[in-house]
TrEMBL record:
Listed name of the protein: Chitin-binding type-2 domain-containing protein
Composition skew (Basic and acidic residues), residue ranges: 11-20
SUPFAM superfamilies hit by this protein: Invertebrate chitin-binding proteins
Species name: Drosophila rubida
Superkingdom, taxonomy of origin: Eukaryota
InterPro entries given in the database record: Chitin-bd_dom, Chitin-bd_dom_sf, Scoloptoxin-like
């Protein structure tokens, strides 16, 4: 159970927020899912990741925090973000997801997905409209006229 893996110190970073009704989130706050209200300092470092730029779940926070590692402007932890209560960072999908859909303990084994341009949202993708323009150009050029989409 998650409660055995996640036992953060009780501090100003780990307290219930009066404004959010945690009863509407399935599971037990602080046991099934973490309830940080700001990103805590951890041992995570962008110097220890396989690919930059990239997005990385922080397993020390039960994956509620994640880091975007890029050119170093944000320090050794990169730009840090926190998923809302009840959600944690899904390393496979590169997005926050309900805690019960994610196996945080597997996150580090999925860090390599950042090296795959098809998965990593920070790797520039070929624009589909450019591919379409070349396809239309190639098809119509043989017919004696040229159309640009």
């Amino acid at each position: 159970k998650f409660g055995h893996l996640f036992n953060p110190p009780q501090s100003e970073h780990h307290r219930h927020e009066d404004k959010q009704d945690l009863n509407k989130i399935p599971g037990v706050a602080g046991v099934d899912y973490p309830i940080y209200h700001e990103v805590p300092h951890t041992q995570f470092s962008c110097h220890n990741v396989p690919a930059v730029p990239g997005m990385y779940a922080n397993v020390e926070t039960g994956c509620q925090a994640y880091h975007v590692c890029h050119d170093g402007r944000e320090g050794h932890q990169g730009a840090s973000f926190l998923c809302t209560n009840g959600t944690i960072f899904n390393q496979k999908e590169f997005a926050c997801d309900w805690w019960y859909n994610v196996k945080c303990e597997e996150a580090t084994s999925l860090y390599h997905l950042n090296a795959d341009p098809e998965h990593n949202p920070y790797v520039p993708k070929k624009k589909p409209e450019l591919e379409l323009e070349h396809a239309v150009h190639d098809v119509h050029q043989g017919a004696g006229f040229l159309i640009h989409a």
